[in-house]
């Protein structure tokens, strides 16, 4: 019976976890649903969602930020849109911003604030750096090979 009690409590915990995740998903869907009628309420609900510690288990954080960034850009509140872009980059360091936010919106925000577009675009920046490192590695190998050939 001890094993059954353990299984029962584990099951209850799993069910509670799933219910919580479903609740988070419903909150996000509700926030999106009321956007047309009450965008300010949507932004408030998004803020509340972002404060959830385990939001990522149910809703992608980037989707919540994307909704907020698009909203503030539509309102031409570019500083606020950029603030959320930066916050998103801090929470998801390898984020590909264009996956969650329309590229035209990203460009508009950067243009309006006179910020170079390459700044903080996320994963692409890291990939570019990695590919440069690989190229440098090849040059070093060539130099070593040449030095070795000269010595032989």
Strand content: under 5%
User: SSE string, helix = H, strand = E?
Assistant: HHHHHHH
Approximate shape: elongated
Using the CA coordinates, give the radius of gyration: 23 Å
Cα(first) to Cα(last) distance is 77 Å
Low-confidence stretches: 122-152
- The tally of strands reads 0
Structural class: mainly alpha
Mean pLDDT score, rounded?
83
Helix proportion: over 70%
Q: Which quaternary structure do these chains form?
A: single chain
Please tally the helical runs, counting DSSP H or I stretches of 4 or more residues.
7
Major pleated sheet:
none
Question: Describe it for me?
Answer:
By secondary structure, this protein is mainly alpha-helical. It is 76% helix and 0% strand. The longest helix is centred in the N-terminal third of the chain and has 32 residues, at 2-33. The radius of gyration is 23 Å and the shape is elongated.
List the helices and strands and how they pair.
Layout: H1 2-33, H2 39-50, H3 61-74, H4 78-91, H5 97-100, H6 103-113, H7 123-151
Helix pairs in contact: 1-2, 2-3, 3-4, 4-6
Keywords:
7 helices; elongated; 76% helix; disordered C terminus; single chain; mainly alpha
Give a brief rundown of this model.
With 152 residues, the protein is mostly helical.
